[in-house]
Amino acid sequence: MPAFDPVRDALRAGGSNIPLVHLNTTRRATDLAVLLNDPEDMRIPYNPKSRISAPGLVMVPLTKAEMDMYKSFRGQGAARVLKRKRQANSDTEEEPPAKKLAGDVNVVVEHYNSRPDVGVVQRLDSPIIGLKNFNNWVKSVLITRFAHSVLAQSSGRGARSGPGRAAGKVLDMGCGKGGDMTKWAKARVKEYYGVDIAAMSVEQAHKRWKTLHPPRFDAHFAAMDCYTEPLAKGFMPAMLSQPFDVVSMQFCMHYAFETVQKARCMLENVSKHLRSGGVFIGTIPNPDFLLDQLDALPQDAEKLSFGNSVYKITFEKRKTGQIFGHKYWFFLRDAVDNVPEYVVHWDNFVQMAAEYKLRLLYKQEFHRVFEEHQDHQEFGPLMVRMKVVDSDGASAMDEDQWEAANLYIAFAFEKQ
Ligand SMILES: C[S@@+](CC[C@H](N)C(=O)[O-])C[C@H]1O[C@@H](n2cnc3c(N)ncnc32)[C@H](O)[C@@H]1O
């Protein structure tokens, strides 16, 4: 049975035989399978070689005062924009107030707009820094494996000559505060397009790009709802005339699965501007994990809730009888404060994606991504550099963070 043992893995690092196509789409881990010792179905146990902290030591729940503080804390960028807005409003009193988004989308936008951009130093204090680093490592693996070669083969190239020159165009849909831009800089992308519904996050992403030293790619940003509006609403036609080589949707696609219309609009935006041979990569909550946990709740459970000290998920209904709009409320410590999200019914999504000429290349749970790449000559040492483990191999995650990590799956599609 594979174990989380980074020291052993770092020592073993050297092999790089990663299968390009790995489809493991349907199996569900079940308690019965564990009892029957079916190795295919068993979850990977948390078993670090050494610990930085005693189990449970960092599991200090946020106090009510802390929660209130973070809810109303807007960060420097947001404060500046608000100040500018206030000034603009006092100049033009009769201007109508900005259109207010209705319902769940509004909750999502307000949540992401109000999350502080704490910067690298303060980020290190996060009680779930190990999990955040692990998620970033998985995204780096995904980008390196599926985007690097596609970008290198792009017809859109930078002026410099030679093998290291910038090439290719990426669309980061749901880019948030632009946390993946350094990964795209490492991918030597030539043009980066960041788009998100949360205008304050987009402003922070723009600011972050300006402080990249040196600015290693051209960047364009737009604030728009990618699940109800065409991409052309955010960017000039000339910007979209050359298709993208890569579209990336990290931890955000599931918000589109509120309705079939939103999911289709999202897929249209992904596919319409992606070149054939280009890739669509992403990360979403694992529908099998969510539904297994929901099924496992006692029939007479008062609340349809599960989780641990790091995350909590609360469903409104066991079943909706529909593919879209299967809603739950999500809390992730120091990251997401109870926002509405939707189950992505996987098989249906893959079928729908095929209608948009997107063919599945890869789908994997995060624990398995770890297992597949821990021995890799590049991704093993990268775990140390990204502080997923320290140089002695001690994990920065405790058991609850490790369990929360497996909430997610990574995927890659190719445009036909
Ligand atoms: C968990 S954050 C992920 C941010 C970033 N991709 C990352 O990996 O750090 C989810 C993002 O999805 C964005 N989002 C949600 N609904 C959206 C929509 N309809 N259109 C564009 N962005 C959306 C949110 O504003 C938020 O920034």
Question: Could you characterize the architecture of this molecule?
Answer:
Its EC number is 2.1.1.56. It holds the Pfam family mRNA_G-N7_MeTrfase. It comes from Amanita muscaria (strain Koide BX008). This protein has 416 residues and is of the alpha/beta class. The protein has a domain at 130-155 and 164-287 and 345-415: Rossmann fold (3-Layer(aba) Sandwich). The chain has 16 helices and twelve strands. The strands form two sheets. The protein has an eight-stranded mixed beta sheet, sandwiched between helices. Strands 7-8-9-10 form a four-stranded antiparallel beta sheet. Helix 11 links the parallel strand 5 and strand 6 (274-285). Helix 7 packs parallel to helix 16 (399-405). 39% of the residues are buried.
What's the CATH architecture of one domain? 3-Layer(aba) Sandwich
Q: Please, what is the CATH homologous superfamily of one domain? A: Vaccinia Virus protein VP39
What is the percentage of strand-forming residues? 15-25%
- What count of helical segments does DSSP give? 16
The radius of gyration computed from the alpha-carbon positions, rounded to a whole number of angstroms, is 21 Å
Any idea what the shape is?
globular
Mean residue pLDDT? 82
Bound molecules: S-adenosylmethionine
What profile does the largest beta sheet have? 8 strands, mixed
End-to-end C-alpha gap:
37 Å
Order of strands across the widest beta sheet?
A: 1-11-12-6-5-2-3-4
* CATH level 1 class label of one domain: Alpha Beta
Low-confidence stretches: 6-11, 13-40, 56-60, 72-98
Percent of residues in helical segments?
A: 25-40%
Q: Assign the structural class, choosing from mainly alpha, mainly beta, alpha/beta, alpha+beta, or little secondary structure.
A: alpha/beta
Order of helices and strands: HEHHHHHHEHEHEHEHEHEEEEHEHHHE
CATH topology of one domain: Rossmann fold
